Sequence to fold (149 residues):
Amino acid sequence: MKDGAAAGGRRLRFVVVACLLGLASFYVGTHVVTTRPAPPSNVQIVQGTETDTRLPDNAIDLALLVDVYHELWHPQNMLQSIRRSLKPNGELVLVEYRKEDPSIPIADAHRMSVADIRTEVEAEGFTFDRLVPGLPRQHIIVFRKRTGG
Fold:
């Protein structure tokens, strides 16, 4: 299908912060809406915790964290939870500001290097897949769920 969801499939949206649950229904797919419609029937909003996505095991193809990973208080626990929720060979995509570029006007605490991210994520059962070029200030780093171990 055009929106990337398989026919009859569903999308799960994970939100940690309870106050963002209302906002989550505003952002569906790539569209920002100005009214508060009900989410499409194939979108299910799931409120997690600081350590658990509360997503079903082997249920998602892709976990996308945009400018989020560096904010996690318990990154190892969250990575383990994400890994459990990913289907075999599922992808984890992190988008983080480049620590390597001091000209980016973002506080150091909100940046990460590819090396730092790889060290942390690979230790939790993921395999580095690729670095996607294209963003001038952020890394797009793709990992796959490691299977068999």
